[in-house]
Amino acid sequence: MTTFYTTISWLLILGYWLLIAGITCRILIKRRSVPSAMTWLLIIYILPLLGIIAYLSLGELHLGQRRAQRARRMWPFMAVWFKTLQSLPSLYPIKNSDVAQPLFQLCENRQGISGIKGNQLQLITSSYDTLRALIHDVRKASHNIEMVFYIWHPGGQADEVAEALISSARRGVYCRLLLDSAGSVEFFRTVWPNRMRNAGIDVVEALPVSLLRIFFRRMDLRQHRKMVLIDNYIAYTGSMNLVDPRFFKKNTRVGQWIDLMARMEGPIATIMGVIYSGDWEIETGKRILPLKPDNNVMFFEKKNDHTILVIASGPGFPENMIHQAILTAVFSARKKLIITTPYLIPSDDLLHAICIASYRGVDVSIIIPLHSDSLLVRWASRAFFSELLESGVKIYQFKGGLLHSKSILVDEQLSLIGTVNLDMRSLWLNFEITLVIDNHQFGRDLARVQENYISQSCLIDINYWVQRSYWKRILERLFYFFSPLL
To answer: Membrane-crossing residues (predicted)?
Structure first.
């Protein structure tokens, strides 16, 4: 009997170390950043069982077998569709600005499509104005409405949007609603999903969260896009979830969320519709055939039109596309670079690119919220301040609420706005979308918005920063240790 238990004990010990060795080899074989690999290895060696469970559930990009198969089928179809647009030269600008050319060329080569001209574009800085405009457009829709949001939080004007959507569906407008399971968990606990489905709206819960799925799909992979498409002509995207800030996260004590949205009219809506069809196919297995590109349905150049490039990321889309686009934009800066982001945990490459831009003489400013809704992110982001400040980057902390806007402005000519935070999750993992606008007038409009943010912010003084207490430095480094996982 003693021999039996001894044998079992040795087999368990051997199995344990084989498991540790196997996970270690898997981490080393996967091509990932050194800080990320070292973080996972340290977690696994310090907390072996918890570390292994965490790595199996969060360490690799598992979309799930069915969704992964759909994603592999989806992109070749989308690539062919994009290629058909090349037969419509009237959609493309003759020339991009010097600052925009590298980014547009990158996207044309990697995703098969560049900027599309002939669009009307409105920048909306007020959540109230965004919701009023959206309600108006939904009520006037005549053919179809597609929406995707990370968060739909009931209450206030969000309920008015829901009522307008139900009303449109009842009069024959085909409506589809794709909501992230984790972000919209409160919505799915209300009566709204059943009310919408009873009205004929296709309501889909994207990437459902369940303990039973934890080892089969990565649970922190989220559908983070925010898009509205109406009649294949009107489109919205930006940083705002479908929430009324007066009713959203009131107990966090960070103030109301401040967002930035774009409302567009023109052929760019059709391009965004293709991205939506990809998301819908990955989640449901059903293919939504977008409008066939045709000169008869495309929109021609108008006065004050805008050239807009859409970049999408996530499983099934070109890998690291948005991260590469942001790097290209930062390296293209010659005079001025302004970044707004609610979460500042950049990759090493992006951190170095921003610092190098400042060393090159570019006037670099980063605007972040003074108070964050995430304690982990708040402390982890501080670990990057010293290197940024030492390179001459100005860091502003916004005091007028939780600044949730995501924007990059390069030389007041090239603008990037969308859903992407400057953190690992947005840059490498989630389904995200970014608009790139090559237009000086729009750049000046965005600059005024950013200047308004700065007027409500406090500038971090480097002399004051280097004198912060020792315990704060320890907390910053501790949370920085986990930054590749945030």
So the answer is: 6-28, 40-58
For the question of residue 294 being annotated catalytic, the response is: no
Q: With 70 as the cut, is the pLDDT of residue 96 above it?
A: yes
Among candidate residues 266, 257, 354, 349, the one with its CA nearest the CA of residue 306: 266
Catalytic residue status for 399? no
- Comparing 65-103+113-309 with 321-485, is the CATH topology the same? yes
Q: How much is the mean pLDDT over the chain?
A: 86
Burial class of 263 by CB neighbour count within 10 A (0 to 12, 13 to 18, 19+): buried
Sequence-distant (≥ 6) Cβ neighbours of residue 456 within 8 angstroms: 398, 399, 400
Q: Which of 231, 349, 363, 373 is catalytic?
A: 231
Within 337-461, residue ranges assigned H as helices are 348-359, 375-382, 385-390, 424, 440-455
pLDDT value of position 296: 44
SS3 label, residue 78: helix
Catalytic residue among 153, 406, 438, 445: 406
Give me the pLDDT at residue 37, please.
72
The pLDDT tens digits of the residues spanning 7-35 come to 777 777 777 677 777 777 766 766 556 66
Catalytic residue among 62, 226, 306, 394: 226
Q: Is 404 one of the annotated active-site residues of the chain?
A: yes
Residue with tokens 């943010």: 453
Q: Architecture of domain 321-485 in CATH?
A: 2-Layer Sandwich (3.30)
* From 137, 259, 411, 445, the catalytic residue: 411
0.85 cut: is pTM over it? Answer: yes
Radius of gyration of the chain (CA): 23
Active-site choice (224, 306, 323, 394): 224
231 tagged catalytic: yes
Which is catalytic among the residues 404, 423, 438, 445? 404
Pick the CATH number of 65-103+113-309 from 3.40.50.2300, 3.20.20.80, 3.30.870.10, 3.30.1330.40: 3.30.870.10
Looking at residue 422, what DSSP letter applies? B
Domain boundaries, the chain: 2-58, 65-103+113-309, 321-485
Cα torsion angle, 341, 343, 348, 349, sign: negative
Catalytic (active site) residue 259? no
Which residues, listed in sequence order, are joined to residue 365 by a DSSP beta bridge?
338, 394
